[in-house]
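Weekly modeling sync, notes
Attendees: AB, CL, MP (scribe)

Item 1: holo prediction request
CL wants a bound-state model with thiamine diphosphate before deciding which constructs to order. AB pointed out that an apo prediction alone won't tell us much about the pocket. Agreed to run with the ligand included and paste results into these notes for async review.

Input as submitted:
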Amino acid sequence: MCQAVEMAAVYEANRNICKYVHSTSRGHEAIQIAAGMQLSPWDYASPYYRDDSMLLAMGFTPYELMLQLLAKRDDPSSGGRSYYSHPSSLDPEKPCIPHQSSATGMQVIPSTGMAQGIRYLEKIGATSLRTGPKGEAPVVLCSLGDGSVTEGEVSEAWQSAVLWELPIIYLVQDNEWGISASAEETRVMDAYEYAAGFKGMERMRVDGSNFEECFHAMGAAIGYVRQERKPILVHACVPLLGHHTSGVRKEWYRTEEDLALHAAKDPKPLLRERLLEIGVLEKDLLAIESDTPKYISLEFDRAKEASDPTVDSVADHIFAPAAVTAEKGNRFPSNGNKVMMVDAALHAVEEILQQYPEAIFFGQDVGRRLGGVFREAATLAEKFGDNRVYNTAIQEAYIVGSTAGLSAVGVKPIVEIQFADYIYPGFNQLVTEISKSCYLSNGKFPVQTLIRVPIGAYGGGGPYHSGSVESTLLTVKGIKVVYPSNAADMKGLMKAAFLDPNPVVMLEHKGLYWSKVPGTQGAITVEPDSDYVLPLGKGRVVQPAHPRDLKKGDTLCVITYGMGVYWAQAAATHFPGQVEIIDLRTLFPLDEELVFSTVKKHGKVLILTEEQLNNSFVQALAGRIQRTCFKSLDAPVFTLGALDLPAVPINTILENAMLPNPEKVAAAMRELLAY
Ligand SMILES: Cc1ncc(C[n+]2csc(CCOP(=O)(O)OP(=O)(O)O)c2C)c(N)n1
C-alpha cells in the first residue's frame, strides 16, 4: 500500500515527466490489494485503469508499471503503446490478463467470455484448462468503476453470467464519481442493488477503506466462485483521493467538503492504526514508510532512463501470422456433390466442430430448434450438443465481444450476427476490444474469432435485412473481412478464417445462399474435400478477356465481389472476349498484386459493389488504383454501386432502382470501352 501511495505521489510531483495521461488507485488501495493478493496464477483478470494497486499485489513491480507510465519499449504490457495501468500479461507466475482497453465497462463482456470459455473447457474436461497444482479451478476477476455499471453492455454480460452460471467475480469499486458526474446525477441504485435483478448473482457489500474487511470479503468471494462455479458481485465503497486522471483535476469540480469526506476514509492511515492495534511494531512501520520513498524514487529514475520503442517497431503485431498461406486440399473432388453456398458454409462448420473439440458456435437462433434463420446451422446442435452449438439472447455486443475472452482461454469461437444490419450493437466490441487486442498487447493476445454475418439485398428484404456493411468494417484496422461468392470459396475460406489466429468477419450473401436470384447458379459448385483451405487475401479470375481483344487494347477489367460477380458476368455477355472479371473474395487483406496487375494489363477498370458508393471501400480502392496504375490507365477508374440512400427500400421496384444490376453494369462497361 505504501508503494502505491508513494508511486502516485512521485507521478504527481513529476507531472512534466509523466506526460501521458494516467490514473492512480489513491483511495481504492485496500480492496485492490485484497483482490490482487488472493488471485492465483491459474486465474484470469480484467483490471481497469485505476487498478495499479491490484497489479502491484499480483506481483508486477513498480518499475514494470512505470515502464508503461512512461510508454517505454520494455513495458511488459504493451511495449509503450498503451496507457499506465492498462495491463496484459501471460506471465505464468501471475493471473492471465488479456488486453485491457480504456473504454469503461467494455471489459465486462470479454471477461465474462473468459468465464464462459472456462466453463466450456471444464465441461469437456479439456486438458488445456489452466488449473492449480491440486487441480484448483480457475476464476475470473472483472474489476470496474461504479460509473461503468450503468452502461448497457454490463447488463448483457451479467445476464449471460447468471444464465450460464459462470465462474466470475465482478468487483465494482464505487467512489460515487464518474468523472465529474456524481452518483445522484447518474443512477437511482448502486451496483449492489442493481445486481439484485440478475437472479443467481451472489452479492456482497464491503467497506473498501477497511483492508481487513476487504481481504476477508475478497477471499470469500474468490472461494465461493472457485467452489460453486457461479458469479458474484462485490460492491466496494471506496473514497477517491487522487485526481480522476493526471489531466482532469479534482479541484475543478469537487468541493472542499466532498474532498474532506473522502480523505477521512483513506485506507492507508486506517490500516496503519489497525496494524498497531494488533501488535505490529511502530518501528517496523516507520522503516517501511522511510524505505519505500527511496525505493520508488530509484525505480522512477531507472524507468526514466529506459529506452523508448524504436520507430521500426510501430507496425509490429497488427496481426499474428496467418495459419493458412497457400491453397491446399482438393477443391474439385471427382466424386464431389454439387452444393449450395449455405450448405458449403454449414458443412465447413460441421467439419470444424468435428475436428476441433475447442470449437463452439453460438448466436441468435443457431441452436437446436431452428438451426439458424437461414438453416445455415441446421442439425449442428443435434450433432454436437447444446454445449457446443447454442442460442444466445439478442445481445450482439455479447456475441461479438465475448469471443475476445473465449479466445484468451483457448476456446475457438464461431459466432453469428443474424443480419449484417444488426452488427452495429456488436461493433463497439469489435472495434474497442477485439481489433486492438493484438497490437496493444504487443502480440500477446491476438483474438481468434470467426464472426459470420449474413448480408446483402435481394427480393424485397427491406431496409433492416438488406444492408451492406463492408466499408464500415474495412475502416477498422486489426480485423480481416472475407466475402465469398460461391460454395467452394465459402468452404475453403471458412476453414482458413477459422484457423486464422486473428479476428475474421465472414460476410455471406443471403441472395447467394441458395442461388435463388436469377443468374447466380454459378454460386453452386462441387463441394471441396474437408481438407480444402483457401488462404485469405487471394482473389480469383472469374473470367479472362480473350487474348485477341487484349492485344487490340479493347478490353476492360471488373474488380468486384459477392453479388457483383454475377452482375458482371451477365453484363459481360454483351461484350464477348472484352471483359475480365476478378472476384476479390477477401476484402482485407486485399489481393493487391492481382488487382494492380490486372488493371495494368487492361488499362480500363470498373470497380463494382452492391454497397452505396459515396466514401466506400470501392472509392478508396479507385484512388489506390489511380496512384499505382496511373501510367497504364487509358480511362478514369470507373466505380459502380448502389444509390447513396440511407437504406434499401422494401418495395422491389425501389430496391431494383437502388441496386446495381446487369443492365447498369453493361452501360458502365459500354461507356468505359468507348474511352
Ligand atoms: C465508453 C467510455 N466512455 C467514456 C469514457 C471517458 N471516461 C473515462 S473514465 C470515466 C468515468 C468512469 O467512472 P467510473 O467507472 O466510476 O470509474 P472511476 O474513474 O471513478 O474509478 C469516463 C466517462 C471512457 N473511457 N469510456
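Recorded for review: The chain has a mean pLDDT of 97.
Action items: CL to compare against the apo run; MP to circulate these notes.
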